[in-house]
């Protein structure tokens, strides 16, 4: 690998640009705005405001989506899911699974699930 290519790869890694571009692409496909450029500018402004603590980060999953996702995981309707199911849901959303409760006996309720997903989403945007 040439030195220039290594420098480029390091630049991408250090600034987490592939992850950022993936998130921006996901938001575009989810919302399908009429004016994609303006939408991206607004999203990046929200990231900037969220980082300063004067606004909210962009959100791909709203309350309704989180409830639906939990319902798909809680197929029997017990009112809770296991730690492994929560971990897989976070991975599916491209979110970190570090610092999660673990163990077969852990029962994650809808409220805990929503809180954890929202927390992980905030953490994921905060790195940019």
Please explain how this structure is put together.
The protein has 128 residues and is mainly α. Helix content is 65%, strand content 5%. It contains six helices and two strands, in the order ααααβαβα. The chain has helices at residues 3-15, 17-31, 36-52, 63-73, 83-92, 110-126, and strands at 80-82, 107-109. A two-stranded antiparallel sheet has the order 1-2. The radius of gyration is 17 Å and the shape is globular. The mean pLDDT is 89.
Which terms summarize this structure?
two-stranded antiparallel ribbon, 2 strands, mainly alpha, 128 residues, 65% helix, single chain
**Taking Cα atoms only, what radius of gyration do you get, to the nearest Å?**
17 Å
Percentage of helical residues? 55-70%
| Terminus-to-terminus distance | 28 Å
- The average pLDDT score comes to 89
Give the strand line-up of the largest sheet.
1-2
Largest sheet entry: 2 strands, antiparallel
In terms of DSSP E residues, the strand content is under 5%
Summing up helix and strand content along with how strands pair, one would put the structural category as mainly alpha
Multimeric state: single chain
Per DSSP E runs of 2 or more residues, the count of β-strands stands at: 2
Compute the number of helices: 6
Shape: globular
